[in-house]
Design goal:
Order of helices and strands: EHEHEHEHHEEEHEHEHHHEHEH
Number of helices: 12
CATH topology: TIM Barrel
Number of strands: 11
Oligomer: single chain
CATH class: Alpha Beta
Shape: globular
Distance between the termini: 11 Å
Radius of gyration: 19 Å
CATH superfamily: Luciferase-like domain
């Protein structure tokens, strides 16, 4: 297993000023590199406390690149539907150069109706725009004199500058929440996979991984080369009861943030998102205690969290990479720093042993 951190803010101006949140996350990114964590990621969202402090992951990751030298930098995930592919490929290519080849480029479809409405993009076009955008970015990185004729974008011939450092292109990840079709397509296309175990049962996630790995192998991609990233909220403290108290506080506010962001689904339907009209109800069906019992949040003292990670490795394979959500903005930054230090000093060495 490898480990990194993902920043998914769920705060707004009434909770914490944005400059303070960014300063705290940059400090934690530097600490993560010092402690040997492998990556830093952040999301792309708009308007709501649910991710809204991160409308452009490239801007934040460029600041991380300036303060670090080894840790990898991941978009988690950039949204092709909201950006012209020439612009998106160029921004990411600049980040790959600024970081001397440390970019992991993850792409997602997005799923919040209010975001699509603001950009004037129909929800029903999300899958096709996603596929077209990823394809265009990969071609712009890998080829010269690119002529592109898509449903939504036509351009060329153009040669993108700067050229990416990583050849033929940076690692590409596809973000999937529920769709078996999406994970199968990712495996067939040879893209890496990232997902959030919290949104599905263990059995469903195991099935999705089987589909993905089977499609990867059937397409003839190199054995063992597929990379799978999972994201988990994480709070570790010397006192397990104190960790649970803080973890519960944080998760309840995260749940409230997503519930507000998905409220529009109660009056929205889309063939591209079957069942999402029930999403507003689903966010309240499980409690923090349910998620803790099912190892969907990593919360406790070092030994308890090590046990959780061992179970996760047993369920999904010890080759998965874990992205730790350590700082949504509701807890003190020192709580996040303590989590990182305890993981580095007392959890991961025993886990690896």
């Amino acid at each position: 297993m490898e480990f990194g951190v993902v920043f998914f803010p769920t705060v707004g101006p009434g909770d914490k000023p944005a400059p303070q949140y960014f300063d705290e996350c940059l400090h934690l990114a530097e600490l993560a590199e010092d402690l040997g964590f492998r990556h830093v990621k952040t999301v792309e969202h708009y308007f709501f406390p649910y991710g809204g402090y991160s409308p452009d992951p490239v801007t934040f990751l460029a600041a991380v690149a300036a303060r670090t030298s080894r840790i990898r930098l991941g978009t988690s995930a950039a949204i092709p539907a909201f950006t012209h592919p020439v612009k998106l490929a160029g921004k990411l290519a600049m980040l790959d150069n600024l970081s001397h080849g440390r970019l992991d480029a993850a792409f997602g479809r997005a799923f919040l109706p209010d975001e699509f409405a603001a950009f004037g993009i129909p929800l029903d076009e999300s899958r096709d725009r996603f596929t077209e955008g990823v394809t265009a970015c990969v071609r712009l990185w890998s080829e010269e004199d690119v002529r592109f004729e898509g449903r939504f974008h036509q351009f060329g011939p153009v040669t993108l500058l700067p050229r990416v450092v990583q050849r033929p292109h940076p690692p590409v990840f596809v973000t999937s929440a529920r769709s078996a079709e999406s994970v199968e397509r990712a495996g067939t296309d040879g893209y890496n996979l990232q997902t959030v175990p919290n949104v599905m049962s263990r059995e469903v996630l195991q099935e999705r991984l089987s589909i993905y790995r089977g499609a990867w192998a059937a397409a003839g991609h190199p054995e063992g080369a597929a990379r799978v990233h999972f994201s988990y909220p994480c709070v570790v403290a010397e006192d397990g009861a104190q960790a649970v108290l803080k973890g519960r506080f944080d998760e309840e506010r995260n749940t409230a943030a997503i519930a507000a962001a998905v409220r529009a689904w109660s009056g929205t339907t889309s063939a591209a998102y079957p069942g999402y009209e029930k999403l507003a109800d689903l966010t309240t069906r499980t409690t923090f205690d349910d998620r803790l019992k099912d190892d969907k949040v990593l919360v406790g003292d070092p030994e308890q969290v090590r046990g959780q990670l061992e179970r996760i490795a047993g369920w999904y394979g010890d080759d998965v990479t874990i992205s730790l959500g350590i700082h949504s903005g509701h807890l003190d930054v020192q709580d996040a720093a303590r989590t990182l230090r305890l993981l580095a000093d007392r959890v991961l060495p025993k886990l690896h042993a």
